[in-house]
Amino acid sequence: MAKVLEYNATMVRRDTVSDGLAVFNIKLDSELPVKDHGKRFTPGQYMTLGLNRTEDGPGDNRPISVVRPVSIASAPEDQVLQFYIRYVGYPNSDLPFTHLLYSIGDGARMYVKPNPTGRFTEEHTCGERAGKALIMLAAGTGLAPFMSIVRSKVRQDPKARLDDYVMIHGVSNPTYLGYKDELDYLAANHGLRYLPTISRPKEAKGWKGMVGRAEATLQPDRIKETEERTGIEINPDTSIVTICGLTGTISQALIGLAERGFVPQNAKIRSALGIPKEVEASIYYEQYDSEPVIDLKNQKLLDSMKKQIFSALGL
Questions:
Q1: Which of 81, 110, 231, 256 has the maximum number of C-beta atoms within 10 A of its C-beta?
Q2: 47 and 176, same structural domain?
Q3: Does a structural domain hold residue 188?
Q4: Judging by beta carbons within 10 Å of its beta carbon (0-12, 13-18, 19+), is residue 39 exposed, middle or buried?
Q5: DSSP string, 189-233
Q6: Co-location of 68 and 188 in the same domain
Q7: How far is 234 from 259, CA to CA, in rounded Å?
Q8: Which residues is 171 bridged to in the sheet?
Q9: Which residues, listed in sequence order, are joined to residue 253 by a DSSP beta bridge?
Q10: Contact 240/225 with Cβ under 8 angstroms?
Q11: How far is CA 21 from each of CA 87, 88, 98, 116, 264, rounded to the nearest angstrom?
Q12: For residue 73, what is the domain's CATH number?
């Protein structure tokens, strides 16, 4: 049975975005130590949050503590940690962390494992990019690590330009567009290419933006519209794609971008597609669930993707 967590942080404020969606502002009792790269964490990393629960009574043998890894939405330069979290209405577990989290109020104590981790960072994905644009595709709360990245750029340099960053955020309706005001500001004042898209336009009277799921913006029949709206050419020679979200978002983006010659970083997928080692990756992803992104037993799908990628790259 899991041990009782020793609380080391305070949930100072919860900012409600919409029903079942909020930003949690959490302050550690002790500041995170500065690491080798001069920051307390690297934008794109995550931390593990935890809460202790009250036992239901005799015979309740479930763990007393519940933890969950969550991407950091704040910049390393910020004093308060920020996490963008959706309430899970139909959890797979009988101990859903979000049910505990949403039951506490401002000022409540909680646990945060004090060691940020993860490699979904610019350094460990696209690196220096060699002048290529970085396309960040997010579904729902998958926006969090990308917020940390663009925020940090501006925290470091208030005059920073974000013209080579494209932020595509897909939600069901506009009320779920978390951080929209901030992203609109970054677009207007720092050049961020911000493209929000909604999948339920009937719930958004007067919406004039893009319609469809996040991954739909990169499908062969929609990608030209995305290029026109962002002003960025989307191909492996000019851009790199990073994706954060659930399996459906990632898999459909990978399949759709095969026509443009984008190559996934994932070693198993590369091997199944027969991608030569010397061909650099151009798609990176952070997955929020555990379903296979590509069915590696679906030879018809693999053959189709391989044919498209090899044709686009001239292999």
A1: 81
A2: no
A3: yes
A4: middle
A5: HH--EEEEEES-GGGSTT--SEES-GGGGGSTTTHHHHHHHHT--
A6: no
A7: 11
A8: 198
A9: none
A10: no
A11: 6, 9, 10, 23, 30
A12: 2.40.30.10
Cβ atoms of 207 and 174 within 8 Å: the answer is yes
Amino acid at 212: G
Q: Which amino acid belongs to residue 123?
A: E
Question: Strand ranges (DSSP E) for 19-64?
Answer: 21-28, 46-52
Residue type present at position 117: T
Domain that holds residue 292: 129-313
The burial class, CB within 10 Å (0-12 / 13-18 / 19+), for 108 is middle
**Tens-level pLDDT at each residue, the chain (315 residues):** 568 999 999 999 999 999 999 999 999 999 998 876 778 999 999 999 999 988 666 667 778 899 999 999 999 999 999 999 999 987 777 778 999 999 999 999 999 999 999 999 999 888 877 789 999 999 999 999 999 999 999 999 999 999 999 999 999 999 999 999 999 999 999 999 999 999 998 888 889 899 999 999 999 999 999 999 999 999 999 999 999 999 999 999 999 999 999 999 999 999 999 999 999 999 999 999 889 999 999 999 999 999 999 999 999
Count of positions (residues) in the chain: 315
On whether residue 53 sits in a domain, the answer given is yes
Domain membership flag for residue 135 = yes
* The total number of structural domains that make up the chain: 2
